[in-house]
């Protein structure tokens, strides 16, 4: 039987057997660590348990039902296609854009997407700070998000609490009326850069394999369909690494510019964690130490933007924030602390997410590639950046909130498929290669659909309140964001776009007073547990 011979060939490859067994052991170990240290996870991470089981099932299916031998010849032909990484990137752009519209929706469901979008709309109007009537502020921004995601002052001024890099990148898309397209564009750029970086560090076949492992990973696909800054960090890290490893003086300056943008994207920590091994590599080698000068010079514009933004934010400080030393001084203890059992448990849970949301076995294969390419310092740096990111995030005491896989680790995730491809492209690894690519295809069929359903469920949940308040002529909504099941958006409406207005409900009496003052003549059409819906004249 062909299956039996395939199993025999697989068993004869010790790396293939070790990859399968280690993959299973990693999944079980992470589950035990999460339960013992972290305790039962919340509702979103619970999805990682069936996903991990399906990923293991995909690995087993890859052993029993391997792809036909023609897959190897197909890889060889694809590797010979000129600019194949560009072709695949363009196809990825189309897929991610359609996925955004169909699966996740073009309206962001999370505060980490809404806050930069709010700021990008201000930038598109050539403004930095919004100005609202003070009496309307609590109706525009949920109180729980004030001074957390949007800084507000008593006189009605407001701006994003995040640094402005991601919003600046989004601004041209706001002008075009498609801010949601930024995520797919950055995701497609990441695909292109993974291909280019794999080609630079290994060979053409490895580049094709890296792209296949990337595009069969649910965390990459869904994050690339969103406006989460995580996809921006992923892409900028790949660009930073590619420029740094090319090694000319101009490349070091450009790498610094990219790094400065990454520092200012939403917060500096992700890029700092990723870049630390690269900076140490330059620092300890006397022959490379001179490259630190052009690299640091490139960082200067980004650092200037961060400094100016932080100073501007202090001008919006409330009396309470002023007494505590400003926004960032007050937030620092909440963002950085010594590693604890809880933070280690959080990171273990996110490692499980990284494992179960990636192509089956990807993390283990990346470790194999790192170990087997000890003479390739560039590949070692990619692995070191991922480890550095995981370890340094134990300094952050909180969880990652909503997201797709381990979004805190996305800044360094792009190196994993490259390291895995380095292991798979070595000579005499045909059985391992067929097994892994077969498991990736089964993962695409078994694991990714469940992840897409989860993402679509978030969009459905976000839209539930407006659908419940819809009615004839309704174009003014007061949504009760304290109601269980209603996803909290950072900004109900910035009143700069669209024909429908969405506000935060503060109770029927206050809502009606706002209508009487600001929207005279609007009539109440519907009121229920989700809030109220009015029709303006």
Helix/strand layout:
Layout: H1 2-12, H2 14-38, H3 48-64, H4 70-80, H5 84-104, H6 111-124, E1 130-131, H7 137-140, E2 150-152, E3 157-160, H8 165-175, H9 182-201, H10 204-215, H11 218-223, H12 229-246, H13 249-263, H14 269-284, H15 286-289, H16 292-314, H17 319-323, H18 327-335, H19 341-356, H20 362-372, H21 377-392, H22 410-413, H23 415-424, H24 430-446, H25 448-469, E4 476-479, E5 501-504, H26 508-518, E6 523-528, E7 531-535
Parallel strand pairs: 4-5
Antiparallel strand pairs: 1-3, 2-3, 4-7, 6-7
Question: How would you characterize this protein structure?
Answer:
- By secondary structure, this protein is mostly helical.
- It has 3 domains: 2-103 and 180-230 and 326-455, no CATH class; 106-177, no CATH class; 469-535, no CATH class.
- The protein is 65% helix and 5% strand.
- A 4-stranded mixed β-sheet has the order 5-4-7-6.
- Helix 5 (84-104) runs parallel beside helix 10 (204-215).
- The mean pLDDT is 84.
List keywords for this structure.
single chain; 26 helices; three-stranded antiparallel β-sheet; 537 residues
The percent of residues in helical segments reads 55-70%
Round the mean pLDDT to the nearest integer and report it: 84
Number of helices: 26
Low-confidence stretches: none
Summarize the structure.
By secondary structure, this protein is mainly α. 65% of the residues lie in helices and 5% in strands.
């Amino acid at each position: 039987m062909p299956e039996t011979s395939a199993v025999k060939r697989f068993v004869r490859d010790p790396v293939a057997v070790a990859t399968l067994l280690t993959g299973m052991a990693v999944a079980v170990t992470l589950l035990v660590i999460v339960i013992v240290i972290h305790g039962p996870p919340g509702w979103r991470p619970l999805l990682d348990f069936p996903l991990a089981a399906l990923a293991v099932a995909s690995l087993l299916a890859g052993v029993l039902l391997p792809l036909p031998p023609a897959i190897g010849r197909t890889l060889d032909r694809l590797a010979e296609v000129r600019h194949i990484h560009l072709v695949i990137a363009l196809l990825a752009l189309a897929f991610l854009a359609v996925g955004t519209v169909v699966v996740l929706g073009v309206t962001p469901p999370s505060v980490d997407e809404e806050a930069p979008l709010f700021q990008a709309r201000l930038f598109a109007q050539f403004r930095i700070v919004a100005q609202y009537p003070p009496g309307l502020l609590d109706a525009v921004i949920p109180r729980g998000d004030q001074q957390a995601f949007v800084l507000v002052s008593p006189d009605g001024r407001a701006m994003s609490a995040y640094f402005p890099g991601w919003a600046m990148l989004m601004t041209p898309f706001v002008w075009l009326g498609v801010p949601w397209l930024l995520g797919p564009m950055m995701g497609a750029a990441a695909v292109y850069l993974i291909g280019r970086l794999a080609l630079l560090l290994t060979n053409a076949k490895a580049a094709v394999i890296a792209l296949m492992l990337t595009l069969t990973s649910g965390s990459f696909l869904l994050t690339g369909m969103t406006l989460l800054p995580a996809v921006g960090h992923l892409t900028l890290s790949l660009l930073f690494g590619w420029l740094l490893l090319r090694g000319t003086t101009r490349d070091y300056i450009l790498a610094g510019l990219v790094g400065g943008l990454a520092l200012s994207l939403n917060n500096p920590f992700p890029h700092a964690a990723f870049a630390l091994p690269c900076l140490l590599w330059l620092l300890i080698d006397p022959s490379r130490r001179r490259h630190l000068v052009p690299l640091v010079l490139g960082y200067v514009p980004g650092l200037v933007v961060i400094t100016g933004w932080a100073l501007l934010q202090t001008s919006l400080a409330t009396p309470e924030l002023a007494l505590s030393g400003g926004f960032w001084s007050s937030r620092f203890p909440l963002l950085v602390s010594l590693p604890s059992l809880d933070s280690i448990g959080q990171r273990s849970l996110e490692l499980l997410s990284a494992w179960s949301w990636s192509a089956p076995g990807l993390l283990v294969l990346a470790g194999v590639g790192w170990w087997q390419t000890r003479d390739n310092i560039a590949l070692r740096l990619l692995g070191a950046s991922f480890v550095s990111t995981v370890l340094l995030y134990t300094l952050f005491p909180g969880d990652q909130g909503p997201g797709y896989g381990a979004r805190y680790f996305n800044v360094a995730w792009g190196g994993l498929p490259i390291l895995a491809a380095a292991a798979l492209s070595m000579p005499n690894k045909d059985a391992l290669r067929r097994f892994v690519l077969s498991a990736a295809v089964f993962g695409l069929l078994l694991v990714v659909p469940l992840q897409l359903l989860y993402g679509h469920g978030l969009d459905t949940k976000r839209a539930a309140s407006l659908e419940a308040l819809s009615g004839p002529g309704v174009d003014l909504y007061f949504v009760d964001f304290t109601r269980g099941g209603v996803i909290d958006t950072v900004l109900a409406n910035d009143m700069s776009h669209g024909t429908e207005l969405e506000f935060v409900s503060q109770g029927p009496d206050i809502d009606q007073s706002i209508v009487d003052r600001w929207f005279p003549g609007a009539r109440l059409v519907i009121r229920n547990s989700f809030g109220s819906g009015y029709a303006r004249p």
